[in-house]
């Protein structure tokens, strides 16, 4: 194997490993989107009701988003979290304190919630199904797992190529990484579109701001790394095969 192709193969493997780590960390963390809101008084009955509703398994989209807006919420692909006063439990009235210390409480999205229909008017089941937001949510949840699976399968093919001491099978690895990059890019795009459509339905309260978090950024960085790894895998395999064919033809001649 030519040193150029071996170097390209090694660089592609490193890029693939980094992108896999970034993608796995992105899927497993809760900071795809973050809200920043003023500190809430922990003696409010309204606050207690919101905390209780947020923890309920039957919380609808509007209910848990209202809590996210009010309590510095963060959202991931699997969980939603809010920050609340530490001396407060979910089902008894909190005592008023002067401390601004908070603890983070998280609730996981169930599979039923992941595939549940979104409504034109969030929280109003009689307003009709919003198909665009429904499928955007499902895609943003499924595509990262498809991307991760494609990269793992590509890694197995690359391992087989190393065992066989041939670069040609890595063309398949490159194609799988290309598809993985497209899935990651699609997931990021679906998430951005879904957030924008949600904020059109539920406007942020006054003094509340939202921004994409570092988990989202990891997914954004993962996509170009996958594309670069794909390009290197395909280039190394194709060019090495081409030179081998020309050398074989020369020897025959």
Automatic annotation (TrEMBL):
Gene3D superfamilies found in the cross-reference section: 1.20.140.150
Keywords: Cell junction, Cell membrane, Glycoprotein, Membrane, Transmembrane, Transmembrane helix
Pfam families: Claudin_2 (PF13903)
Topology of the protein relative to the lipid bilayer: Multi-pass membrane protein
Predominant location category: other
Matching InterPro entries: CLDN1 (IPR042356), PMP22/EMP/MP20/Claudin (IPR004031)
Location of the protein in the cell: Cell junction; Cell membrane
Record-level GO cellular component terms: anchoring junction; plasma membrane
Transmembrane segments: 141-164, 176-200, 212-237
Highest taxon of the lineage: Eukaryota
PANTHER family in the cross-refs: CLAUDIN DOMAIN-CONTAINING PROTEIN 1
Family indicated by similarity: Belongs to the PMP-22/EMP/MP20 family.
Role according to the record: Plays a role in negatively regulating the permeability of cells to small molecules.
Name listed for the protein in its UniProt record: Claudin domain-containing protein 1
Organism: Equus caballus (Horse)
């Amino acid at each position: 194997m030519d040193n150029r192709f071996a170097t390209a193969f090694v660089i592609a493997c490193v890029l693939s490993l980094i992108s896999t780590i970034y993608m796995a960390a992105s899927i497993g963390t809760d900071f795809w989107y973050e809200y920043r809101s003023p500190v809430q008084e922990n003696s409010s009955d309204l606050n207690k009701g919101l905390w209780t509703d947020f923890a309920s398994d039957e919380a609808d989209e509007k209910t848990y988003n209202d809590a996210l807006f009010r309590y510095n919420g963060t959202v991931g692909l699997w969980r939603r979290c809010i920050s609340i006063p530490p001396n407060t439990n979910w089902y008894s009235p909190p005592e008023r304190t002067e401390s601004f210390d908070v603890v983070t409480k998280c609730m996981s999205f169930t599979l039923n919630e992941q595939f549940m229909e979104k409504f034109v008017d969030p929280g109003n089941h009689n307003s009709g199904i919003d198909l665009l937001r429904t499928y955007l949510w499902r895609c943003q949840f499924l595509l990262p797992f498809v991307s991760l699976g494609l990269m793992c399968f590509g890694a197995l093919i690359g391992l087989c190529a190393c065992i066989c001491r041939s670069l040609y099978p890595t063309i398949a690895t490159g194609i799988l990484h290309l598809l993985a990059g497209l899935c990651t890019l699609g997931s990021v795009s679906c998430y951005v579109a879904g957030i924008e459509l949600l904020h059109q339905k539920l406007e942020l309260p006054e003094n509340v701001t939202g921004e994409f978090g570092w988990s989202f950024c990891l997914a954004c960085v993962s996509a170009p790394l996958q594309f670069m790894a794909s390009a290197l895998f395909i280039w190394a395999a194709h060019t090495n095969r081409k030179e081998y064919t020309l050398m074989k033809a020369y020897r025959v001649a």
